[in-house]
C-alpha cells in the first residue's frame, strides 16, 4: 500500500509522464529530423544508450549533491534545467526539467546542444567512460 501511495504522489508531483523507449534507429531518425549532423549522431545515441537505455522518461536517482538527471540524455538539474521543487539550479538551458522528461525529445535535444556547445560530449561521464575515442559508439549505418 505504501508503495502505491508513494508512486501516486510521485506521479502527481512530476506530472503524468508516459515513457517512450526508443531504439538506436528510431533515435537516429529523430535526431536527424531535429538537425543533428549525421557524423555526430552516433555520439548522441551512445550517450542515450548508456544514460537512459533510450528511455525518454528516465529520472536518475539522486546524485551525491542532491541533484537529479532527467530524460533520455540524463540532463542534470543543478546546472541545466529547473527542477521546479525549490532546489537551486543555474538553469542554463532555461527550461523546466519536466520538459526534458517527455516523449517529445525536442527540448532535451536543444538543451543537450547547449551542453555540447559549452562543454562538449565530455560533459557526460558516460561518454568519457563508454563512448569516447570511438569505444562502444554504435554504427548507425543500418538505420538509413
TrEMBL record:
Q: Where is the signal peptide?
A: 1-19
Q: Name one Pfam family in it.
A: Lys
Glycosyl hydrolases family 22 (GH22) domain residues are: 93-111
The alphabetized UniProt keywords are: Disulfide bond, Signal
Q: Which Gene3D superfamilies match?
A: 1.10.530.10
Which InterPro entries does this chain map to?
Answer: Glyco_hydro_22 (IPR001916), Glyco_hydro_22_CS (IPR019799), Glyco_hydro_22_lys (IPR000974), Lysozyme-like_dom_sf (IPR023346)
The family classification in the record reads: Belongs to the glycosyl hydrolase 22 family.
Kindly provide the name given to this protein in its UniProt entry: Lysozyme P-like
What is the species listed in this Swiss-Prot or TrEMBL entry? Bactrocera dorsalis (Oriental fruit fly)
Coding gene?
Answer: LOC125777290
